[in-house]
Specification:
The protein is α/β, with parallel strands linked by helices and 295 residues long. It has 2 domains: 160 residues, NAD(P)-binding Rossmann-like Domain (Rossmann fold, 3-Layer(aba) Sandwich), CATH 3.40.50; 122 residues, N-(1-d-carboxylethyl)-l-norvaline Dehydrogenase, domain 2 (Orthogonal Bundle). It contains 14 helices and 9 strands. Strands 3-2-1-4-5-6 form a 6-stranded parallel β-sheet, with helices on both faces. Helix 9 packs across helix 11, helix 9 packs across helix 12 and helix 12 packs antiparallel against helix 13. The longest helix is centred in the middle third of the chain and has 29 residues. The termini are far apart. Bound molecules: NADPH dihydro-nicotinamide-adenine-dinucleotide phosphate (NDP). NADPH dihydro-nicotinamide-adenine-dinucleotide phosphate binds next to helix 4, strand 7 and helix 7.
Length: 295
């Protein structure tokens, strides 16, 4: 199978690296120098436009910030649709929104071209190790066809339902990450102010019912150490929370916690900037509470 990969960002790049080691790969990236450097390093081809990238590809993977950017690649003389061949499957690994994906799928469904939403979880380290969880929306036969490509970077690959279902599950997962990270940081800030060691508090919580990825991994490894590595932008988590809140509303669930958390992350993004990492949300809580969660 020939594969095209569009979007060599923080997580797209290590995913594309795994694809390149098993399939003939053509890449495209908005900043072309990244695609050229990738091609030289990993024996792939770098295309100048989305149209050129997807020509001849059986599987086209996109991994962009939001569904809006994916939709933005489709049209025009250099657009993806101008080059997509009959029988090709577009696999969108963006953490996108269900409604836009359904619209994109409907545009492809007029021919033999197919669409699967396939957002990933597991972070940059999971992408590097090829152990991502991939939650898919689409037809089973389409997933079966592209599964060998997804298996190069994914360990658990689950069909969640029709087109959009993968994005919906991903948004809910991300919303939980956002809520947990915020609430754990608030609670730890209060404990520090009360004179409790955050290291000890986490030891207790992680042996108790409140434990989560934020308490087990993110806060000990990134906040207590003050490392704050930039692996997943806070702006992207804000986007995911917004998708989850909107998705809940479309299902008739008012979801006040998801709405409030979206607004808290939006305010934090305005304060910290577009490039801040999601774990840097703890810095906002530290600033407003006048303390540091330091190990
Ligand atoms: P980055 O911000 O690191 O990279 C974004 C990519 O999209 C870059 O290749 C960028 O190109 C490209 N891009 C941005 N705007 C446009 C545009 N208007 N047109 C075309 N290309 C564009 O994001 P990530 O790689 O971190 O995330 C990608 C997706 O994966 C997001 O939906 C995110 O939520 C999701 N995700 C990320 C995880 C992570 O740990 N990072 C974990 C799980 C999911 P350029 O190089 O020119 O800037």
């Amino acid at each position: 199978m020939n594969v095209a990969f569009l979007g060599l960002g923080a997580i797209g790049l290590p995913m594309a690296r795994h694809v390149a080691s098993h399939f003939t790969l053509t890449t495209w990236n908005r900043t072309q120098s990244k695609a050229t450097a990738f091609a030289q390093q990993h024996g792939a081809r770098a295309a100048a436009t989305p149209r050129e990238a997807v020509q001849g590809a059986d599987v086209v993977i996109t991994c962009l910030p939001t569904s809006k950017e994916v939709e933005g690649l489709l049209d025009g003389a250099d657009g993806l649709l101008a080059g997509l061949k009959d029988g090709a499957t577009l696999v969108d690994c963006t953490s996108g929104d269900p409604t836009t994906s359904q619209r994109i799928a409907a545009r492809l469904a007029s021919s033999t071209q197919r669409f699967i939403d396939a957002p990933v979880s597991g972070g940059v380290s999971g992408a590097e190790q090829g152990t991502l969880t991939i939650m898919c929306g689409g037809e089973e036969a389409d997933l079966t066809r592209v599964r060998p490509v997804l298996e190069t970077f994914g360990k658990k690959i689950v069909l969640c339902g029709a087109v959009g279902a993968g994005h919906a599950v991903k948004a809910v997962n991300q919303a939980l990450l956002g809520v947990h990270l915020y609430a754990a940081s608030e609670g730890l800030a209060a404990l520090v102010k009360a004179g409790v060691s955050p290291t000890l508090a986490l030891e207790v919580i992680n042996a108790s019912s409140g434990r989560c990825n934020a308490t087990e991994n993110l806060i000990p490894q990134r906040v207590l150490t003050r490392a704050f590595p930039r692996t997943f932008r806070l702006a992207l988590l804000e986007k995911d929370l917004g998708i989850a809140a909107a998705f809940a509303r479309t299902q008739g669930v008012s979801a006040p916690v998801l709405q409030l958390t979206t607004e808290l992350y939006r305010a934090a993004r305005r304060e910290l900037g577009e490039e801040a990492d999601h774990v840097e949300i703890a810095k906002v809580i530290e600033r407003t509470s006048g303390t540091e969660i330091r190990g």
